[in-house]
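User: quick one - fold this with magnesium ion bound?
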Amino acid sequence: MSAVLQRVPEVGERIEIVGRAPGQDGLLTPPALAFLADLHRRFEGERRGLLESRARRQAGYDAGGLPDFRADTAAIRAGDWRIAPIPAALADRRVEITGPVDPKMVINALNSGANCYMADFEDSTAPTWANLVEGQRALREAVIGTLDFVNQAGKRYALKPEAERAVLIVRPRGWHLDEKHVLVDACPEQGRRGERMSASLFDLGLFCFHNAAALAARDRGPYFYLPKLQSMEEAALWNRVLAHVERELRLPHAQLKATVLIETLPAAFEMDEILHALRDRIVGLNCGRWDYIFSYIKTLRAHRDRALPERAQVTMAQPFLKAYSERLVRTCHRRGAHAMGGMAAQIPIGNDDEANDAALARVRADKLREVAAGHDGTWVAHPALIPVAREVFDAYMLGANQHEMLREDVVASRDDLLRPSLGTITRKGFENNVEVCVRYLAAWLDGNGCVPIHYLMEDAATAEIARAQLWQWLHHGGLHLDDGSPVDFALFERALLNLPSRLAGESVPGVSRVREAIGVLDRLTHAEQLAEFLTLPAYERID
Ligand SMILES: CC(=O)SCCNC(=O)CCNC(=O)[C@H](O)C(C)(C)COP(=O)(O)OP(=O)(O)OC[C@H]1O[C@@H](n2cnc3c(N)ncnc32)[C@H](O)[C@@H]1OP(=O)(O)O
Ligand SMILES: O=CC(=O)O
Ligand SMILES: [Mg+2]
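Assistant: Sure. Structure tokens for the protein plus magnesium ion:
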């Protein structure tokens, strides 16, 4: 790593910044660093403990157990309570655009006409130090209204007036990730480096430190999307963090608001509990379907009967996904919370009208399913999809939300949430998983966390499905493609073989890192244990 060690004497040399990026000094001021170091000291122990709990739970599933509703929280599920009122700025969230945090994306997303913009440090951002600093800088300038950008061709991007902009919601990274560029409590006398701080606390803490007062003054939050939670204890930790930030920054109680992504299988069994743990500050749950599918594979990796068919066949019509999304609507509406839909992976296809129409039709059908199921809003990955989503939600959701649709007809039992799926693995599906993993990883290592591949949006969540499937299919052994060929490592090696030469001839993002990506995928796929996240080993390879 081309690291520059920056000592911060004002904080007693107890925090080191390893890295250098334009604009960093204006963000990582001594008071901001003192604020971050304090977050680390207060909450790091609990975070570590919760990550250990995840591992213990997983060990139970690996030993043959299956997720279930908790006996110790039955009273929370049965109780008659509601979340705190939702602020006006988040009352109507029918269309939300999501995307990485580089300045052009931020401007385009805020100007896009969507109700809200989820500025994403998670699935769609490769967390290079340069990307993180640039993203925090762009958001800070967006909050004060000065952000602008000029591209290489000289085209200028500027923000629309605030009343015409989407409401900003920031997604910090998940609890599993460290921020290796911020080391807290080094002890040089004993030759000890500091501890890496939590990436979640870095993203959220730094954003709040610089923007909370301005946003609160305009009744615009700060608002957050919280990713990849697995339990109500993790939600409770977030709640303590948010309460602490409010106190430290002298904000009113419960000024910070959160929407939690239900995107892990264990969390689907604790939706009520998560809402309850954050009840003063939560405004909704979201169906993070791509990570959810990944988590289903990962959680049930030892359960051969729950292996999934190829990605293209894992649609929201699969019973386990239908049950999860409908349970989310029912749970949210009972508690007065928004039940947000998720992302359709199709994106516009500029050079083929017929293919473009087909892609838009699939997005439309997905949004129609969501609004009919009772969702109060949805996500789009690209500005050109906003009219499609808006048209569907405007036609079927007449008020700002549809909380009145209680969905008491939904059962979504434990068996429904775990229901095995029908389907096949085709050669094309297998090879596509290999290609997506390699191309996505190469782009990610090159600093790009979201790329179009074969006209689908691919990010850390969608790529994880492909990676976890390959591991599961190959390690279960004895599986066959629909043409009868064995699914084995020879098939995997053959799929990898021609990729470098093929991709070298195409202008794919991160092409110079394709061989490195192949190496990472090869190790992850051969490993005895399924790695928790592909971004963990990959993170050690980026600046
Ligand atoms: C599983 C999940 O977590 S989903 C949430 C995380 N994933 C995302 O947020 C996906 C975000 N989307 C994207 O990053 C992009 O749309 C991609 C990578 C999928 C496609 O990007 P591109 O190929 O560059 O799209 P395309 O060339 O059609 O873009 C056209 C214009 O729209 C802009 N644009 C595209 N997507 C977005 C977006 N999500 N937000 C804002 N602007 C966008 C581009 O910047 C470009 O602007 P310009 O004309 O001013 O240069
Ligand atoms: O974050 C969203 C998802 O689908 O994963
Ligand atoms: Mg996700």
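One thing worth noting: The mean pLDDT is 95.
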